[in-house]
Design goal:
Blueprint: H1 15-32, E1 46-51, H2 57-68, E2 72-77, H3 89-97, E3 103-108, H4 113-117, E4 124-130, H5 136-150, E5 157-161, H6 168-179, E6 183-187, E7 203-204, H7 208-214, E8 217-220, H8 236-243, H9 247-251, E9 258-260, H10 273-276, H11 283-301, H12 308-311
Parallel strand pairs: 1-2, 1-3, 3-4, 5-6, 5-8, 6-7, 8-9
Amino acid sequence: MLQQKHLLGLEGYPQEDIQAIIDTAFNFREVLDRPIKKVPSLQGITIVNLFFENSTRTRISFELAQKRLSADTVNFSASSSSLKKGESFKDTVQNIEAMKIDAVVMRHPAPGAPRHLTEFIDAVVINAGDGTHEHPTQAILDMMTLYEKFGKIKGLKIGIIGDISHSRVALSNIYGLISMGAEVILCGPAHLIPPYITDLGVKINYNLDEVLEWADALNVLRVQNERMGVGLIPSTREYRALFGITEERLEKHAKEIVIMHPGPMNRGVEIDSAVADSDQAIILDQVLNGVASRMAILYLLLGGKYEDKDIK
């Protein structure tokens, strides 16, 4: 069991809880490698996936995790709900909870919305991304993937590359990695890295080649094309020249650097196809670990019926 009822973010989240999730996730990785990829751990538990923003990867990952644990799942889309008819957020979620649900997995464009949800319902709440605030389950699967690759997180040197200001993935990774003892350097356009972020224990370096020389692994953030029209990034060509992870750039450094990406990727912009498809990249491992780590989170928060020995 975890110390906190909900998973709303990794800011201040107990280090031992993060480690417990990662350890349990490795047990579930073994389940996913079996011919029958299912355990009865959450049989009888009902989980609502409450997505107020479009999502493919995160929603499918959570749905698979829930089904692999034998939970009953309900998918709620805000675009086709009574919210469109004027019903309040509070009334919507309280009506959903009246149907006797046990947990809500929530994605919302407003920072803090999952925490706000906990004021209205008694069910467990898991944040699947709230605006530009946090995306804790993505950070946990990233850390699990690093742990799988290196056998540790403490002491690793991790570069996070890209638009830090608008990235919930970056913020959750910073909180989690620093808590687990890693060193973190941020790199990207100066106007897309908040100067105060060094208060969180990270460093900033605007020279990508220096970061490459230092880092054990890079977490490469997506260039969000929807922001291109407002002048935040002058052009994709300029961005690629300064901050793109290209094969030519990596070849300058006589070391193997592990490459990660939360997806979806803009190939040829923040990362080249040759790099994304290389042996250095562990991007598909992140996808598989996403299911395993979300299984672990659901299992630990919802009091799975079986002991660890039963899922090994």
